[in-house]
């Protein structure tokens, strides 16, 4: 049977067993037996409950259930892997899982956690989390639930360290204050949207992740083994040659998890891992996460409103309402909890749905206050599955040794050189397959060169067509500047989302990323600019002198680089919509200052500064120097009886350009390129910081 089939045929034994326990325990509990039986029994078999069929569990006496489920509980606790894998396929997956080294469970606790955001200039602040407390014991699958806007993602961001600005309160790991750099080394964050490289296959994505996330001392065989195990475990093994963009939503979600599993994190944060998936894929993803917790990992997910079937997969739930905790405890204990506060879950109602309705204020806002005080805004541990086993911070501290202090250890697992070489390899694969950034760019350069060539045929040699040629030079300038700028503005925001995720998960440093980004684009920029230049230069009959050709090419190349750097600054800071508006709007003044429409001499004195900051001015001046400078001789005058610009000098005088400023233009463009590149790096860094 294929790995995929193995994955999809697994029956989620853990969840079922967990459910049995819940019913048994609750059936014998003292609180509201009538309501409790009615509401929890359906969870044993969600579909039969929905269909209104009688469930066998309902006919079982409470004592019988208690006996059965108690023995299941023992089985789960003592031999989790064996009891989870109920058939051969499961056991195969468990094999793969057992090759991932188990982790020492990390207990996460937070006290009086609040998070405040600034609303903008003069608009004050907004507190999103209001002194919430909570405890997430290690080795459990925990759901953060709540209505939309309750603060689930914000809590996840604060706990994972993704957000640090405006966070107040304490976060403890095994009883000690969280040291963020160390915590980031043992945890990972999987975002709601799948930020994956679409043009890489599953296998390539996994190999890149392994090469970046595993130390350089890990052998090739070890990496291969780990990749194979993870792909097998996640049911992606049969798809390892599929391009990521062709994967289904559920497969993409699993690939996101697979890539972060490579370095075996102890704590995993997942923002809405089930959003956008069908119910079967949701179940599979959550069952997979449940399996991962059996090895000591603590997995915390936000989830909107799980179905009864999904709900019972979790060990523990943390429910938020408008930034306050309204329930914290075991999934099985939610119904007794609601009963204890005299808000019993109605018959045939999914408790998860009911508590969300309560948290939304559908039954009155006073109920939210009741729940908040009953759960002590997250401090109350009474409703944990096994409150007796929940260790206090002091006990945890004593149990876990003081971690060794790591000074000056880089956040990344591999060296700068390794990061650069892996990123260059990834960039090369992407560039080969990228229809926009590579193929389309080359095609557009050839097509535009042919079009301009046809329009301005022979304009470069004719004295009577000097003005046409001047127009051509300006059109070339705009083409080089705008195409690369707009391409970057349109594509970089998507790349940026991937960068934010991977950089936070410590795949690479920003320096390595930026270095690779700059280098990887060089060959394609050189090739497309060279093709364009050769075609237009020859077709428009520019002077056939090597020195002029290379001067022309050098200016073209620098303009491309400057345009690209400006695009990078805009693309890094703004989204596609704002960027698409801003880029042309900023280019127009640069065009006006270039000396094309209004000569540099005629520019008002108070606007002269503009021409010094316009890259298009240096570009145009450089082109003019290449074509009409270097004391170019008399032009041919074969096409018209009157030849106004027979002498290039006359033309230069008229446009107030000297034709001997080539090196000054080159230096100015180089300085601009350097400043804009550096600016783009600073903007990138600032953007990443501002998000956090
Ligand atoms: N930077 C911010 N500025 C202003 N308000 C913010 C900011 N970030 C979050 N909020 C607000 O905080 C609240 C909680 O947001 P959060 O994204 O955590 O909610 P959520 O529970 O995850 O919602 P959903 O399930 O819809 O994703 C929302 O009302 C949101 O508008």
TrEMBL record:
Q: Which residues form the ABC transporter domain?
A: 108-347
**TM region positions:** 438-456, 476-500, 512-539, 551-574, 581-600, 666-684
**What do the Gene Ontology cellular component annotations say?**
plasma membrane
Q: Which domain of life is it from?
A: Eukaryota
* Matching InterPro entries: AAA+_ATPase, ABC2_TM, ABC_transporter-like_ATP-bd, ABC_transporter-like_CS, ABCG_dom, ABCG_transporters, P-loop_NTPase
Q: Nucleotide-binding: present as a keyword of the record?
A: yes
Q: Which SMART domains match?
A: AAA (SM00382)
Q: Where in the cell is the protein located?
A: Membrane
Q: Is Translocase given among the entry's keywords?
A: no
| Keywords tagged on the record | ATP-binding, Membrane, Nucleotide-binding, Transmembrane, Transmembrane helix, Transport
One GO MF term attached to the UniProt entry: ATP hydrolysis activity
Pfam families named in the record: ABC2_membrane, ABC2_membrane_7, ABC_tran
Q: How does it sit in the membrane?
A: Multi-pass membrane protein
Report the family membership.
Belongs to the ABC transporter superfamily. ABCG family. Eye pigment precursor importer (TC 3.A.1.204) subfamily.
What name does the UniProt record give this protein?
Answer: GH10667
- Originating species: Drosophila grimshawi
The gene name reads Dgri\GH10667
